[in-house]
Design brief:
Strand content: 5-15%
Shape: globular
Helix content: 25-40%
Number of domains: 3
CATH class of the largest domain: Alpha Beta
Radius of gyration: 21 Å
Number of helices: 8
Number of strands: 9
Structural class: alpha/beta
């Protein structure tokens, strides 16, 4: 159980405690964290490792400082980025003098050489090949405000903590090529990956409070049996039959197979019939 709490401006007091309580309520447990042999398990306590990795990449000539604003990048970019981080960075600062006077606190970017192609196999979505230079470009490792980027932090932690398989939502599939390449730049092999399909509303929007999604805690507060919620999730993913209405996470271990997991996205009623699911 790793707590990814680097983006401090977005943190809310008590959120870690609430998340862990909700997972326990659902019947989830974990082998490590917050205690264990590879701690600390909060990313906010691991920044020295990210600094060291950034220093190693810099010593290998793979990073550079960038003081471009978002507006400047958008105006200069020749193509939109297909993922979650906006337009592809055009490399404006790649060859700028390292000792120049910066207009604003600079971000640190990873230099992606032309022709860099990354191949990986996802357990759910199969084979992928990405031309990292043309489809992603030089990506940020540390923001201008000093916050380390998700891409760097999770790669460093996965390698340091001995992670062998990363399982996460399909909305992060576009991050995988960057992380495979970054692991190679650090002299290591990335873990294997599996991206679970997302639950979406009728308009295709990812479920969240802003999309009328119902938090796990709300199900808990009105007295719903957590096994009903687990069973619904399992049926949506293809891991349970229609007649199975109560399941604990431990019930799914023996039957689990990536071949059974739906490739989604999976459209559901955002309310999941909250008030009619008591028992």
């Amino acid at each position: 159980m790793r707590v990814e709490d680097l983006d401090t401006p977005r943190l809310r007091a008590g959120s870690e405690r609430r998340i862990l309580e909700d997972l326990h309520w659902l019947g989830m447990d974990w082998d490590e964290g917050p205690e264990g042999p590879y701690g600390p398990y909060r990313q906010s306590e691991r920044t020295a490792l990210y600094e060291a990795a950034l220093g190693l990449l810099d010593a290998r000539g793979l990073t550079y400082a960038c003081d471009c604003s978002r507006k400047e990048i958008a105006l200069a970019a020749s193509a939109p980025h297909p993922g979650e981080e906006g337009p592809i960075y055009p490399g404006t600062c790649r060859h700028a003098p390292r000792d120049r006077v910066f207009r604003r606190p600079p971000a640190m970017r990873l230099l992606v050489p032309a022709g860099t192609k990354v191949r990986f196999t996802d357990a759910v979505f199969g084979e992928h090949e990405i031309d990292l230079a043309t489809e992603i470009g030089d990506f940020v490792l540390r923001r201008g405000d000093g916050v380390f980027a998700y891409q760097l932090a999770v790669v460093v932690d996965d390698l340091a903590q001995g992670i062998t398989q990363v399982v996460r939502g399909a909305d992060l599939l576009s991050s995988t090529a960057r992380q495979v390449f970054l692991a190679a730049c650090l002299g290591a092999k990335a873990p294997s990956f599996a991206h679970a399909p997302l639950l979406v509303g009728s308009g295709g929007e990812k479920l969240a409070k802003r999309a009328r999604g119902i938090p796990v805690r709300d199900h808990r507060s009105v007295g719903i049996d957590p096994r009903r919620l687990v069973a619904r999730l399992a049926r949506a993913l293809g891991l349970a039959d229609d007649g199975e209405v109560r399941l604990a996470p431990s019930d799914l271990v023996a039957r689990f197979s990536w071949d059974r997991v739906a490739k989604g996205p999976i459209e559901v009623d955002p309310s999941w019939n909250l008030t009619s699911s008591l028992g």
